[in-house]
Amino acid sequence: MVESLFSGEFLALSGAAVAALAGIGSAIGVGVAGEAAAGVVSEDPNKFGQVLLLQALPGTQGIYGLLIAFLVMVKVGLLGGNGMIDLTMIQGAGIFAAAVPIGLVGIFSGIAQGKAAAAGIMLVGKKPSELAKGMLFAAMVETYAVLALLVSFLMLNSIQV
Amino acid sequence: MSKNKIYPFAVASVRSMENSLMTKQKLMQMADAKTVDEALRILSDSAYGKTQVKDAHDFERMIGNHLEETYQAVDGLIPQETLVDIFLYKNDYHNIKVLLKEEVSKVNGKKFLIQGGTIPIETLRKNLRERNYVELPNIDGEAVEEAVSMYAKTRNGRYIDTILDKACFSTMEKAAKKLGNAYVSKYVQMLADITNLKTLLRVKTMDRDYQVLEESFVPGGSIGLELLSRAFRSDSPVAVLKETPYGSLCEEYMDQGFTAFEKACDDYLMEYIKDAKYKTLTPEPVMAFILAKETEAKCIRIIMTCKMQNIDAAIIKERVREAYV
Question: Average pLDDT by consecutive 10-residue portion of chain B (325 residues)?
Fold first, then answer.
């Protein structure tokens, strides 16, 4: 039983799962931004289009997580139709480690970006002409999600199976 | 309230509503208006214009309706009601004062009642008449009883005011303590202190007895009655009050007469409220908005009243308070 937990296959699958957890951050972030967006729209329905853009920003972390999870699954042959390939424990652990950056950074940067996006939405509520600036502030947080994606991607690519 | 509780919807709504606040320039423009009708026109162009009045003397109706609208708009934003209620207790107590005075004087005080308390006026009237305080949860029944019996004894309406003011401040203080929000607690404390400082100055200016000060003292502030009485008895109250957080405020404005000091006090509070402008998710901006609207209404009252008395624009401008936006 314990041995199967440390099998290469299981570790690799756990990696895909961890990567997908980035969606937690996005969900919270988009949720907070959505509440703020509803607040602005309740006062001025015409601003719907503008605030929707901002609300969508924290959603990218989830997509990055999905991307890495897919890459992991492709790498271990889960999506090929021929069944999963055999992995050593070292390989499996390597894949797991590669997925951790986007999983963890995705959660926290998603939440942080959600708050920045909510603030941007309030900015639009008060000064509609400043949409671009509000988006920029929120997009700054994106940098770190992208960096984590890059690290995860490079690590995953360099693991030989 | 948990420290991390956030209210994106409420804050975002309030931020949008802030656009309807009048800027200081707009208020100055009103003060500069040549006639009272011109000032009224500027007012009608603002958010207050929803209620249109023909006669400038009716401007109070515009303010009343607009404030009521504001209270209603804010009320539904935050599920945790005490947060907003703390700022509405004063309206409840004001209405109680009006109703009690109506009762003892038999004069109809309908036009003095304000909508926007935590308790609907009809409920308040009914339960107050029956002296039933069970349905008035935030009202200090003992204080009402005390006010009534004190009036019966002295036939002096002032006691109704002072006793209920005390009760109002202690209700606010209690609610703020229960809420545990540092911003609110600090505000309530400052409000009590500033009220007491104003009382001190007023009593001193009017050359009244110490007893009046003691009776009007409201609880909840950081300056105790002991310090205040020392300031009252001293030849230079400013020197005694220098050590308090309001030292610079007193030093600068206390000697300049009551009107200037009152304005300085309002500006001092507004300076504190303005902190909320930089909060995005916590509930402070919601409270700040209520207070900003109330200050704005006060400014408009000052301007319109002065305009009707044909007071010089320069003097009116001196009295216009700082605005939130």
Answer: 71 90 90 89 88 83 87 81 82 90 84 82 87 82 87 86 91 88 90 92 87 89 88 85 86 85 91 88 88 91 90 88 86
Find the domain containing A90 and state its range.
Answer: 6-158
Predicted pLDDT at B4: 61
A115–B16: do the CB atoms touch at under 8 Å?
Answer: no
B203-213 pLDDT, tens digit per residue, is 888 888 888 88
Residue of B nearest to A31 (CA): B8
What residues of chain B lie within 8 A of the CB of A126, using their CB?
A: 15-16, 18-19
Asked if B196 contacts B221 with a C-beta cutoff of 8 angstroms, the reply is yes
**Which ipTM score applies to this complex?**
0.81
| Residue A1 is assigned to a structural domain of this protein | no
Give how far A154 is from chain B: nearest CA, Å: 36
* Tens digits of residue pLDDT in B255-275: 888 888 999 999 999 999 998
- A21: distance to nearest CA of chain B, Å? 23
Classify residue A125: in a domain, yes or no: yes
d(CA B101, CA B97): 6
Query: Is residue A113, in this structure, part of any structural domain at all?
Result: yes
- CATH number for position A33: 1.20.120.610
Q: Residue B12: its pLDDT value, please? A: 92
pLDDT at site B64: 85
Domain assignment present for residue A74? The answer is yes
pTM: 0.84
Number of domains in chain A: 1
Q: What is the dihedral of CA B277, B279, B284, B286, to 10 degrees?
A: 60
Nearest Cα to A135, choosing from A150, A151, A118?
A: A118
Backbone angles phi, psi at B80, to 5 degrees: -80, 105
Q: Is the dihedral of CA B43, B48, B51, B55 positive or negative?
A: negative
